[in-house]
Amino acid sequence: MTPTAALLAFTLAAAILTVTPGMDSALVLRTAAVEGGRRALMAGLGICAGCLVWGAVAAFGLGSLLLVSTVAYDALRICAAFYLFYLGVKLLWGGRRPGKSSAGPAQALPPAATANAAGWFVRGCLTNVLNPKVGIFYITFLPQFIPAGADVLRFSLLLAAIHALLGVLWFALLVAATRPLARWLSRPAVMRGLDRMTGAVFIAFGLKLALERR
């Protein structure tokens, strides 16, 4: 396989994986609908940064530890499960707070000037960095697209960067898709429903990760 053919094949495979519905898309969609496009984009950038972290770890060979060390894998798995539980419960609890039912859109959404974009970036990043399944994915997936004779480190980093770029484009598209529905999505009842649905998704993923056995 030539480098060009490898890049094209990886880009196609990564694009399919990127648009497949999952926890990352749910987080960005919910954030765009309830918190606004700026925060959603920062959450998406954080998710992609997490992918880059795992890509670099896999490229430098450190990620192989997860394949051979049950302790390392389980430690990350439990941390990720607790973090997803925390996010899920926070969303569910927030949706049940009585003050939200009477708050109008202007009260429910803080002004853009006070938005903590950095916090959303960190939140998105942690959902990937703490997930050992993402690490295993990179360790097992990237080598299949590295052609013979290529510099493994540089080519692995290039593939990870392509995957992150595809993620940024996809999340930007998701955010843009919510803009025509912004008025409807900003209704308190709709926001509570989105919070509960996304919280349930996070808790379900957390349960799946906590109960998983290698």
Report a brief summary of the structure:
This protein is mostly helical and 214 residues long.
Describe it:
This protein is globular. The chain starts with a helix and ends with a helix. The chain is an all-alpha fold. The protein has 12 helices and no strands. Helix content is 80%, strand content 0%.
Query: What is the CA–CA distance across the termini?
Result: 32 Å
Largest sheet, strands/sense/barrel: none
Helix/sheet category: mainly alpha
What best-fitting shape do the alpha-carbon axes yield? globular
Global Rg: 19 Å
Low-confidence stretches: 98-115
List its traits.
globular; mainly alpha; 214 residues
Write the layout of secondary structure elements.
Layout: H1 3-19, H2 23-34, H3 37-59, H4 64-68, H5 70-96, H6 98-102, H7 105-108, H8 117-129, H9 132-141, H10 152-178, H11 182-185, H12 188-211
Helix pairs in contact: 1-10, 2-3, 2-10, 2-12, 3-8, 3-9, 3-10, 5-12
